[in-house]
Design brief:
Keywords: Acyltransferase, Transferase. It comes from Arthrobacter nitrophenolicus. It is an enzyme of class 2 (transferase). Its EC number is 2.3.1.51. By secondary structure, the chain is α/β, with parallel strands linked by helices. The longest helix is centred in the last third of the chain and has 19 residues. The protein is globular and about 45 Å long. Helix content is 32%, strand content 15%. The two termini are 21 Å apart.
Length: 266
């Protein structure tokens, strides 16, 4: 699909530009941690990577009913995507184990630290599942900034707009110094925040120190428990407050903080 059928057509229509592709190792395990602007991120990102990329995708894509549901599930299985249970607790932990299996076999695992698509093209707080995987597997994390995919396929739009998109692959982030503290929650938060800082730097997005899933619930008028101390960080402000994801900022836990759930497309 990537090299013969879909790939050439998509490259011709959307003319994707890429920077930093050499930052992906030619062999060996690594995590590709990307911002998440559009459903099409999971199509364009692996399209431009020479090696196969396995993504964690939300469970609902694999459990649909009817012809459409079965075709959707078939598509996601054929494109190397694994079901991710985002309900938290043991279910999310089991899904992370599937991702660990990919890394243990030397593969590339694609993951969205935000856990869901951004509702407004801003970059939201990362969940610590990506850090847990990186620390336990001892693999590098390559930040990936998707550019313009939200304009190609905005949330709720089925047919894409034909326009150029881009992606930037940052230098690998090495967290082996924390290998002996893989289960330390503060370390997981620190590692996640550093990944999010790199994504913000590469993408130029405004950073919001709040979970995207919480914002989506609020926008839908559904009740959510407030996250104590959440603030919006202005990248131009240069501060190092709780909402600043830059390396070295103090890790801050909040009421309702994630339990390690990884990021799935959706």
């Amino acid at each position: 699909m990537k090299r013969i059928f879909l790939g050439p057509v998509l490259k011709l229509l959307f003319r994707p530009w890429v920077k930093g592709l050499d930052n992906i190792p030619a062999e060996g395990a690594a995590i590709l941690a990307s911002n998440h602007l559009s459903f099409s991120d999971s199509i364009f990102l692996p399209l431009m990577v020479r090696r196969p990329v396995v993504f964690l995708a939300k469970m609902e894509y694999f459990t649909g009913t009817g012809i459409k549901g079965r075709l959707t599930a078939l598509f996601f299985r054929l494109t190397n995507q694994l079901p991710m249970d985002r309900s938290g607790g043991a279910a999310s932990a089991a899904s992370l184990s599937a991702g660990m299996g990919v890394l243990n076999h030397g593969g590339l695992l694609g993951i969205y630290p935000e856990g869901t698509r951004s509702p407004d093209a801003r970059l939201y707080r990362g969940k610590v599942g990506v850090a847990r995987l990186a620390l336990q597997a001892g693999v590098p994390v390559i930040p990936v900034a998707m550019i313009g995919t939200d304009k190609v396929q905005p949330i709720g739009k089925r047919l894409p707009n034909i326009r150029r998109i881009g992606m930037i692959f940052g230098e690998p982030l090495d967290f082996t110094a924390y290998a002996d503290r893989a289960e330390d929650r503060d370390v997981q938060r620190k590692v996640t925040d550093q990944i999010m800082f790199e994504l913000q730097r590469l993408s130029g997005q405004e950073y919001v120190d709040e979970y995207a899933a919480v914002v989506k619930l609020r926008l839908a008028g559904k009740p959510v428990e407030p996250e104590a101390g959440s603030i919006i960080h202005d990248p131009s402000a240069g501060g190092t407050g709780a909402g600043d994801p830059r390396p070295g900022s103090a890790p801050v836990e909040r009421a309702g903080d994630d339990d390690g759930g990884a990021a799935a497309t959706g």
